[in-house]
Amino acid sequence: MPELRVAVIASHNGSNLRALHQTSLVPDAGFRIVLVISNNSGSGALAYARDKGIPARHVSACTHTDPDEAMRAALVEHAADWVVTAGYLKKVGPRTRKEFAARIINIHPALLPRHGGPGMYGDNVHQAVLDAGDLVSGASVHRVSDEYDSGEIIAQVEVPVHGGDTTATLAARVLEAEHSLLPAVMRQIARGYLLRPDSDPEEGRR
Ligand code: GRF
Predict the structure, then answer these.
(1) Per residue in 125-164, is it b (16+ CB within 10 Å) or e — as a string?
(2) What is the chain's Cα-based Rg?
């Protein structure tokens, strides 16, 4: 079976990109990273991609008059089958969503539908978990829709919240879990799982 071609979009650090990329190098991973896009020229994600020889693009409102179209075109140019947003702080535009439909997924550092939506990123998410007194947090992988963090949830992992946790300690525990969850989901997608029950078996590939 040919490898699934995966593009990653990230704004900052890119640790999930690194986890995905490292898994993609394992024999029989079933996928490879063919493009990294960031809206932030100084992101760790772009630096990592360049270091590893992965095609890397800076696409933002500063670099392109129509960043959504530029992103869509770059993804098509690199023949991406699936798109992963990991720490991408902007909404994926309508043209890109239309092009890739159900084949764009995002990772969120909480157990959606709790603690998602506008403003729920970074430490805000973990602060909300602590403020709510939740005993369990976690990470969710979901399909990208036109609203933040609201598409179909396709995989989750739970992470305990400890007494005395700060946003930093909780974030670190959740991020570690993300680094297992996201590559595991991608491997499953590459094997043809996690498609919608009503989907065409060819949906996973362009
Ligand atoms: C992760 O916690 C992810 O869930 C959230 O942003 C963070 C990105 O981390 N959307 P990184 O850039 O992958 O290190």
Answers:
(1) bbbbbbeeebeebbbbbbbbbeebbebebbbbbebebeee
(2) 16
Q: Alpha-carbon distance 37 to 2, whole Å?
A: 23
Ligand 1: which atom is nearest the Cα of residue 109? 4
- Summarize pLDDT for 20-78 with one digit per residue, the tens: 999 999 999 999 999 999 999 999 999 999 999 999 999 999 999 999 999 999 999 99
Test site for ligand 1: of 90, 129, 156, 175, most ligand atoms within 8 A of the Cβ: 175
| Ligand 1: centre distance to CA 16 (Å) | 6
pTM of the model: 0.93
User: Exposure of 202 by Cβ count < 10 A (0-12 exposed, 13-18 middle, 19+ buried)?
Assistant: exposed
Own/partner contacts of 120-129, CB < 8 Å, gap of 24 or more, are: 120/148, 120/149, 121/89, 122/171, 123/167, 123/168, 123/171, 126/167, 126/170, 126/171, 126/174, 127/167, 129/161, 129/170
Annotated catalytic, 108? yes
Does residue 15's CB lie within 6 angstroms of at least one atom of ligand 1? yes
